[in-house]
Amino acid sequence: MKLKVELTFPGQLKDEPIIYHIGQKYNIIPNIIEASFSTKTGWALLVLEGEQAEIDKALEFVRNKNIGINVVGNV
To answer: From CA 45, how far away is CA 57, in angstroms rounded?
Structure first.
């Protein structure tokens, strides 16, 4: 499955490789469509490709990091 999501990052996480980690840890392919980061915040529009269960686990990991998630929809 493919799911498009928008992530909103707090400033303290802007230097952490969160997108890399979800790809490695949860066996999904994150494709960055668009992104913008500043010193205070950042956002990224992604398409996550993989098994539904793995995408769900990855989104839970992101939520636990206090990153905002807006599910745009299936691709």
So the answer is: 18
Cβ-based neighbour number of residue 9 at 10 Å = 23
Q: Which of 64, 56, 45, 63 is nearest to 5 (CA)?
A: 45
Residue owning tokens 């392919």: 29
Three-state SS letters, 18-44: HHHHHHHHCCCEEEEEEEEECCCEEEE
Q: For the domain with range 2-74, which CATH number is right: 3.40.640.10, 3.50.50.60, 3.30.70.260, 2.120.10.90?
A: 3.30.70.260
pTM of the model: 0.91
pLDDT at 45: 98
